[in-house]
TrEMBL record:
Lineage of origin: Bacteria, Bacillati, Bacillota, Clostridia, Lachnospirales
Protein name: Sn-glycerol-1-phosphate dehydrogenase
Keywords: Cytoplasm, Lipid biosynthesis, Lipid metabolism, Metal-binding, NAD, NADP, Oxidoreductase, Phospholipid biosynthesis, Phospholipid metabolism
Biological process annotations from GO: phospholipid biosynthetic process
Extent of the signal sequence: none
GO molecular function: metal ion binding; oxidoreductase activity, acting on CH-OH group of donors
CC annotations in GO: cytosol
SUPFAM superfamilies in UniProt: Dehydroquinate synthase-like
The keyword Lipoprotein is assigned to this record: no
InterPro entries: G1PDH, Glycerol_DH
């Protein structure tokens, strides 16, 4: 049974100390044993007539057949939509398939699965202006309560506005039986919040970016749940699994509150996204999102540790020269067919320009006492690696076949996926990419 009083977060407006009003449109969350059995009861409070249940081959076995059974017993008719791919990718082809399979008169989509299924269903239901429910199959990622959908469009990882699910079912009998690497992936996704909260605070100081202390505290709660329960979750203790699922959902609520992924995605995610794009371009098996994020977290904290070693040597950059045309060639080489979107972003923001680098480094050095205090609050990289090891999860990029070349390119160019200030932009601004990437490659590879 969930230990969280979800009503305090859901389906209401919350006037926050940050002077903004936060909202989360989720109506109900059930993280408990036999949660799927609640599906007919929840549906009875609504007037849905035309349901679609979306699964892939694995999630149908894990929970889909149970969902079918509960709906049939309650007298509901529904359409089954089944993805047959061995490894489902949330790209244009998968989107088109779902758009063509969901009838125009459908009024509820029930997504049975984890990250990819939900990213697709969340986006399609949003575009079709219909509700969607989630039946989770693994505590593997923090997107269950999210209001955005990360999709691969024209080879580029792009985050689209969407709307969160109306109801989330986390049946402990189902999610506790998920493969261990999926449970560990959920832990990895949450551990990444250490880095993203640091990045966010630095962006507030350097760029004046909006920040909300209460949302940060919500994310910290999600981190604590994972750290305290990782070892027990690896042994499939249901209470520990429930705690990790709670942490994942709380992280998603934080994203819903702020309206984007800033509270839950930083430099560790950007490296992960870059690796993912390279796996897909090479038609290579792509590890789970949270697996990559966990590794990205260890690497990002190591880079922050290296940055602290330079704290007395960093000075404002006055003579920075940004060779735009050379950089464009490097981006084309680093991103291949996905380069167009990255180049367009830089044209729009100019984040790498001489003026911006000069301004940011000036502020960074002026506010260095605040900045180093925030960075000092990070746990040691080795501590994060130990948590991952306790769940038999990889913690270095070579363990998931990220080559040293791709790893280095990620440190240089993953920052250009988003207009978000953080660790990787700091390394660029102070000219530390080459030195730090080489040091880290020697450590890891």
């Amino acid at each position: 049974m969930s230990n969280v009083d979800w009503k305090q977060y859901l389906n209401r407006e919350y006037s926050c100390s940050c002077r903004k009003v936060h909202t989360c449109d989720i109506e109900e969350i059930y993280i408990e044993e036999n949660a799927v059995r609640r599906l007919p009861e929840v549906l009875s409070r609504h007037t849905y007539k035309n349901l679609c249940v979306v699964c892939d081959r694995n999630t149908e076995k894990a929970a889909g057949f149970q969902v079918y059974e509960e709906l049939e017993k309650a007298g509901y008719t529904f359409k089954r939509i089944l993805y047959q791919e061995e490894e489902l990718v949330p790209d244009e082809e998968a989107l088109i398939y779902l758009f063509t399979e969901v009838p125009n008169d459908c009024d509820l989509v029930i997504a049975v699965g984890g990250g990819t299924i939900n990213d697709l269903c969340r986006y399609v239901s949003y575009k079709m202006k219909i509700d969607y429910y989630i039946v989770g199959t693994a505590p593997s990622m923090d997107g269950y309560a999210s209001n955005v959908s990360p999709l691969i469009i024209r080879h580029l990882k792009t985050t689209f506005e969407a709307r969160p699910a109306r109801v989330i079912f986390g049946d402990l009998n189902i999610i506790s039986q998920a493969p261990l690497h999926m449970i560990a992936a959920g832990a990895g996704d949450i551990l990444g919040k250490y880095v993203c909260l640091t990045d966010w605070q630095l962006a507030h100081i350097v760029n004046g970016e909006y920040i909300c202390p209460e949302i940060m505290e919500l994310v910290r709660q999600s981190i604590q749940k994972v750290v305290e329960n990782a070892q027990a979750a690896a042994k499939r203790d249901k209470q520990a699994i429930a705690a990790i699922m709670e942490g994942l959902v709380l992280s998603g609520i934080a994203m819903s509150y702020i309206g984007n992924s800033r509270p839950a995605s930083g430099s560790e995610h950007h490296m992960s996204h870059y690796w993912e794009m390279m796996f897909l371009l090479d038609h290579a098996p792509d590890p789970l999102h949270g697996t990559k994020v966990g590794i990205g977290t260890v690497m990002a904290i190591r880079l922050y540790e290296m940055l602290k070693e330079k704290k007395d040597q960093l000075v404002p950059v006055k003579d920075f020269s940004f060779a735009l045309e050379q950089w464009k060639d490097e981006i084309k080489n680093a991103y291949g067919p996905a380069a167009g979107g990255v180049l367009t972003l830089e044209d729009k923001t100019g984040k790498n320009s001489k003026e911006e680098v000069s301004r940011r480094t000036e502020v960074f050095c002026r506010e260095k006492e605040k900045i180093w205090k925030i960075i000092d609050e990070l746990p040691d990289a080795e501590k994060i690696a130990e948590v991952l090891k306790s769940m038999e999860a990889p913690f270095y990029p070579d363990q998931i076949q990220v080559s040293s070349e791709v790893f280095k390119r990620g440190i240089f160019y993953a920052k250009d996926l988003r207009d978000r200030f953080g660790l990787l932009q700091i390394l660029f601004d102070f000219g530390l990419q080459e030195e730090f990437s080489q040091r880290l490659i020697e450590e890891v590879y």
